[in-house]
Amino acid sequence: MTTHTQHAEQLSTTTLLRFATAGSVDDGKSTLVGRLLHDSKSVLTDQLEAVEHASRSRGQEAPDLALLTDGLRAEREQGITIDVAYRYFATPRRRFILADTPGHVQYTRNMVTGASTAELAVVLVDARNGVVEQTRRHAAVAALLRVPHVVLAVNKMDLVDYAEPVFAAIAEEFTAYAASLGAPEITAIPISALAGDNVVEPSAHMDWYGGPTVLEHLETVPVSHDLTACHARFPVQYVIRPQTAEHPDYRGYAGQIAAGAFRVGEAVTVLPSGRTSTIAGIDALGESVDIAWAPQSVTIRLADDIDISRGDLIAPAADAPAVTQDVEATVCHVADQPLSVGQRVLLKHTTRTVKAIVKDIPSRLTLDDLSQHPAPGQLVANDIGRVVVRTAEPLALDAYADSRRTGSFLLIDPADGTTLTAGMAGASFAAAAEPGAAAADDAEWDF
Fold first, then answer.
1. Cβ atoms within 10 A of the Cβ of 304, count?
2. What ranges make up the beta strands (E) of 84-146?
3. Which residue, among 312, 321, 315, has the nearest Cα to 266 in the 3D structure?
4. Of 376, 390, 400, 395, which is closest to residue 443 (Cα–Cα)?
5. Among the four 13, 299, 336, 425, which has the fewest Cβ within 10 Å?
6. Burial zone of 151 (CB within 10 Å; 0-12 exposed, 13-18 middle, 19+ buried)
7. Inter-axis angle of helices 67-77 and 29-39, to 10 degrees?
8. What does DSSP say about strands 261-263 and 291-293: parallel, antiparallel, or unpaired?
9. pTM for this one?
10. Which residues make Cβ contacts (< 8 Å) with residue 67, sequence separation at least 6?
11. Phi and psi torsions of 150, nearest 5°
């Protein structure tokens, strides 16, 4: 059993895996999710009875496991906006948060939402159809979002007589494509979600396959990327000044460590001001500690009285990010209204929100063949493109390739607070970054 005294690092890296599923329509994604939940004993008895009853009333002998997620599909057909369904389940070895994302092209933005926090993406392919346009699109989104692990689940192997050559050809094609986009790790697994082959239990029909089942891979894939080795970043969420008789001079900066680790005595820089100090103390769960790491929520005390407020970023003095007002990024447009050049927006980065203007939209990405459509002028819902944004105040922004947490941001409509666009600073895929945008004269910017 997990105790409160165990490290938050352990909790986040060894016992919890966030993963997303993606696949074309009718590739069997609902059945795979249902099979995972059913065979890992994660379905409540009344849920299973309801599924068995519904299956019998349809004239089916075996329970249709897709019905465990079918309600979600109905929601999608009703046009609900962010219809990523989150499922929670656990095995003795690991806890899971599953983001079940839709497959249609018009739901690209939903896959971006679900995969943005995922450490692994399961891309489903129908063994009879092989790699299709939608498969390439899902691989591209996973690579754009820098999802560390990708699983290719070649489903419906029972319908191609469990033939190894069929699986091998699909796996080779997908792996070559995903690797060309910079996807770091790809694991191909032949399965039949309907029959249960290689989902939770090993298949008796594919003795030629010696790799893990889907669940076995999910339970053992290393998600312990050393958080303490990342660039340490602490966005300030709240300034604590009790000014009580007991704590007359207490001044602490509360928030969640976004990445890396902080130690008492460490020299730090506060951005965007650039002022420096040292960490005098760290308070976690009411106790003083010598070290804290992501994703712990702590209060940091500094040796010097510095003007710090919500939205400021504390980082090690030796490893502070550059501060800029010109942001170049790959974005996915998620709102129904378009994003246009010259549009005034709010940019939300960690705990900081600043006014900004869309200076340029250099290109729109065609996910089918990864070609760039130059100067589209605007982005509409589900478009992925490059944008250049000028902010009213400096931002301490990392490249998304270095930190998914501090390299991401949102563009927001200042009129009604609608989220317009999700952004990833720096280069897209594994390509080199484009040249920085030329700084404009402040007089030209009407904030």
1. 10
2. 85-91, 94-100, 120-126
3. 315
4. 390
5. 336
6. buried
7. 140
8. antiparallel
9. 0.81
10. 34, 51, 54, 55
11. -125, 130
